[in-house]
Design goal:
about 425 residues, alpha/beta, TIM Barrel, two-stranded antiparallel sheet, 17 helices, 12 strands, about 10% strand
């Protein structure tokens, strides 16, 4: 399976000063920042997906600035993403509409014609048809039974858009079109897949998978695969279940996209730093939270309420950082390193002094996870450029430049684990 990373301007400042927590002098955002494939020196993915909804093309306000969106369309995705070097020439560039950005709209804000033009103008290698998300999932319904009127309307609209989009894409010949499947059950998804193949698609993208459990995804894949010819390729939109990849690969999936390895670095309570697991799959460590005392909203609220003094929070912050950095240089007594960290985290997690909550379940669980991280020192065993250059800073949960570096490390681990899986019968996007 090919791993396509869903990008959202996920860059870091390569010269960031961790000791003083400031950007490199004279830094120009984007221009001086580095994408994962730049800071690692290799691409930890087989391609990148960019959504129109992220770029902000048309009526949807995206994450890109107006200047960035204009440049993206002027120079194309490969140049904008800095993939225009020989070593990255084989990476695919997928585009989709970013259906989550308009999920509450009656109809998508894009048309098949302007979407095909967007993919064409921006030099994508692959482009998905205009879909409208269906969140219902009724696992046991047969045929097209069980649909709400809204689900049926979105089903019909997605297929009508796909048919019109294929006509537009065939006039371009510059990108491979993917027909998007939406449905409220495995059977309805299979029917959508059958109709898309009848239209002429030989590459299908399955939407609506993000909220589903792995057994539901596997069931849908099995029914879809049974309904279409073996040579038709399948892509899963937004699949992020790292340790269930074998369940997906069994259904001859060609590719999938996700941003999960990166965002889990800072949007997960405990599974922040990824490592290859013995016997296959991904293992996890918890990153250690040491936020900036003068900038963290929760801590500053406690100061304003008079619960804690700013000087005391700053002192605990400094002690925690110093203990961790000493432990990075040479192993220290784990409990001695842990003590100031838990003192600081107690205030962050409970709003109370550590002595008052030492036996609180939250603190007990946190102590177990942090103790494991400190005992194993996994960042010292990782040869990736992120861990080699940043050291323990990559394990500190603290603002974007550390957190995204940890996420980029995760991307590299995920790609390594994925490359170790058995190849599918059609393993080329």
């Amino acid at each position: 399976m090919k791993f396509v990373f869903a990008d959202s301007l996920d860059v870091v400042d390569p010269g960031y000063d961790f000791l003083n927590d400031r950007h490199s002098p004279g830094r120009k955002p984007y221009w001086d920042d580095a994408y994962p494939h730049e800071i690692l020196g290799y691409a930890p993915y087989d391609g990148i997906l960019v959504s129109r909804g992220i770029v902000g093309d048309g009526p949807v306000k995206g994450k890109y600035s107006d200047a960035q969106a204009m440049r993206f369309k002027r120079v194309g995705a490969r140049t904008f993403l800095r993939l225009d070097k020989p070593e990255f020439a084989g990476l695919s560039l997928f585009g989709d509409c970013g259906a989550f950005t308009y999920v509450n709209e009656t109809v998508p804000p894009y048309t098949p014609a302007d979407t095909a033009e967007f993919y064409d103008t921006c030099d994508f290698t692959h482009g998905c048809s205009v879909d409208h998300i269906i969140f219902d999932f009724l696992e046991d319904e047969l045929g097209l039974a069980g649909a709400t009127p809204e689900a049926q309307r979105r089903f019909d609209l997605t297929l009508a858009n796909a048919e019109a989009f294929l006509t537009e894409a065939r006039q371009s010949h510059r990108f491979t079109p993917l027909g998007v499947i939406q449905g409220w059950s495995p059977a309805s998804m299979a029917e959508a897949a059958r109709r898309l193949v009848a239209m002429g698609y030989d590459y299908l993208a399955i939407g609506g998978m993000v909220p589903l459990k792995i057994n539901q995804i596997a069931r849908a894949l099995a029914v879809i695969r049974a309904a279409i010819p073996a040579g038709v390729r399948l892509h899963i939109l937004g699949f992020g279940k790292a340790n269930e990849m074998l369940d997906v690969a069994a259904h001859d999936v060609t590719s999938f996209d996700t941003t999960s390895p990166l965002i889990r670095a800072f949007k997960d309570d405990k599974q922040n730093y990824w490592v290859p697991r013995a016997g296959g799959g991904v293992g996890y460590y918890t990153a250690i939270r040491i936020p900036q005392a003068i900038e963290n909203p929760r801590l500053q609220r406690l100061v304003k309420q008079g619960d804690f003094r700013a000087e005391e929070l700053t002192r605990l912050e400094g002690l925690s950082l110093a203990a961790l950095r000493a432990h990075d240089k040479a192993p220290q007594d784990v409990e001695a390193v842990l003590e100031p960290i838990l003192e600081y985290n107690a205030i962050l997690a409970t709003g109370r002094p550590f002595e008052d909550v030492r036996q609180h379940p939250t603190m007990q669980k946190l102590a177990v996870r942090y103790r494991e991280t400190l005992r194993d020192r996994p960042w010292t065993k990782c040869p990736c450029p992120i861990c080699r250059d940043a050291g323990v800073e990559v394990m500190i949960f603290r603002a974007s430049n550390r957190n995204k570096r940890r996420g980029i490390h995760n991307l590299g681990i995920f790609k390594t684990v994925l490359d170790g899986l058995p190849a599918t019968s059609d393993d080329a996007a």
